[in-house]
Amino acid sequence: MKTTPFTQKHIDLGAKMADFAGYNMPISYSGINDEHATVRKNAGVFDVSHMGEFILKGENALGLIQKLSTNDASKLSAGKAQYSCMTNNEGGIIDDLLIYCIEENKVYMLVVNASNIEKDWNWISEHNTDDVEMHNVTEKTALLAIQGPNATKILQPLTDMDLLNLKYYTFAKGTFAGVGNILVSATGYTGAGGVEIYFEDKGDDAEKIWNAIFDAGKSLGIKPIGLAARDTLRLEMGFCLYGNDIDDTTTPLEGGLGWITKFTKDFTAKNILEIQKKEGIQRKLVGFEMIDKGIPRKGYAIVNTNDEEIGHVTSGTQAPSLGKAIGMGYVKMEQASIGSKIHIKVREKQLEAQVVKMPFA
Predict the structure, then answer these.
(1) If you compute the radius of gyration of the chain from its CA atoms, what whole number of angstroms results?
(2) Which residues, other chains included, contact 196 with Cβ-Cβ below 8 Å and sequence gap of 6+?
(3) CB contact at 8 A, 359 and 326
(4) Are 13 and 34 in contact (CB under 8 A)?
(5) Nearest one of 140, 152, 149, 206 to 177, comparing CA atoms
(6) Three-class secondary structure of residue 178 per DSSP
(7) Cβ-proximal residues to 218 (8 Å cutoff; 6+ apart), any chain
(8) Most buried in the list 175, 217, 289, 339, measured by CB within 10 Å?
(9) CA separation for the pair 254, 92 (Å, rounded)
(10) Which helix (H) or strand (E) holds 47?
């Protein structure tokens, strides 16, 4: 298994560790509910150094990004970021990703999912016909996400960058905790506010930054948080997880990502998605709350009252902030409207649930 610059920290802190996308990652420390509440009410630190980072440079960099991603990256100016996805030739989602505009029309950073690093790199390289300069900086990039309502208050004394007023989907570059060339962004995956800190893993910089964050937040009760709570936090917000809610077989329109699919430009499989938009989709990713007692799990069948399968669960949990079980899943369009009653098949039981608007929280 691969490690991050913080792996030994997690082990020393007693984290429950497990393989995640080939990395030895912390799943939980004090427990999912406690960690979840810490982020919702205070501030927590996630090690997400397993994510992939690619730098694209040159006069044709934007053109390559535009050709491969569904959102319109030409709208980005320096210091702004965008959520997008890349589609395959059939319209399925290769990956969802973040696009950072470092220098307008010249330098961009793509942040991709850990499980898709090699796949994404190969796909982009294969379509790089205009000699765009590409650098896979994943192995030397460390990434911490400090999330929660008190996150920026804790971090502000460690930098001259104005973190307190950093707008959603923007970023700043500067010195943080005495370490230079730091990128701090506000993109978030928890819905609780906060920032992400990208930096080059060299010397003892990781140690310095980790210690500075926890020293600054000690009096306010900042805690390290594992990936299990990250999953419950993102699910409450209705954020998709690649490999669960979206994948190579689901299109952006089916996955509720029509808002990042811009038909005003050309991109891979645009014609397929235009037809799908015109003719209508057959299935849709929806959020649902359990009415009967039970927790929906990935892969469980979704059925109608006649026990006919109409879809499947992609994500599910007992939501710590809500005190109820929630989930996401694909269903046929006839059952996709808000308020529709559906049933989750748990073993041989049919447990009643209701389609609801997301976010849940």
Answers:
(1) 21
(2) 48, 143, 144, 145, 146, 184, 185, 186, 187, 188
(3) no
(4) no
(5) 206
(6) coil
(7) none
(8) 217
(9) 10
(10) strand 44-47
pLDDT score, position 361:
75
- The answer to whether the Cα torsion of 81, 192, 189, 221 is positive or negative is positive
Paired tokens of 286 = 């929806």
* Phi/psi of residue 162, nearest 5 degrees: -85, 85
Per residue in 29-75, pLDDT tens? 999 999 999 999 999 999 999 999 999 999 999 999 999 999 999 99
> What is the number of alpha carbons within 13 Å of residue 174 lying toward its C-beta?
14
pLDDT of 348 > 90? The answer is no
- DSSP collapsed to 3 states, 90-120: CCCEEEEEEEEEEECCCEEEEEECHHHHHHH
- The answer to whether the CB of 51 falls within 8 A of the CB of 112 is yes
Residues 6+ apart with CB under 8 A from 90: 269, 272
- Provide the token pair at 106: 């010249």
Are 87 and 261 a contacting pair, CB within 8 Å? Answer: no
What predicted TM-score, i.e. pTM, was given to this entire model? 0.97
Cβ atoms of 144 and 217 closer than 8 Å? no
For residue 17, what are the β-bridge partners? Answer: 26
Task: Write the CB contacts of 140 (distance below 8 Å, at least 6 apart in sequence).
Answer: 200, 201, 202
Tokens of 13: 């802190």
* Alpha helix (H) residue ranges in the chain: 7-12, 32-41, 61-68, 117-126, 151-155, 205-217, 227-236, 270-279
Would strands 44-47 and 223-225 be described as parallel, antiparallel, or unpaired? parallel
Place of tokens 């960099």: 61
Read off the amino acid at residue 47.
Answer: D
What is the DSSP code string of 238-288?
T---BTTTB-TTS-TTTTT-GGG--TTS--TTHHHHHHHHHH--SEEEEEE
Could you give all domains of the chain from N- to C-terminal order, each with its CATH number?
7-49+139-236 (3.30.1360.120), 282-356 (2.40.30.110)
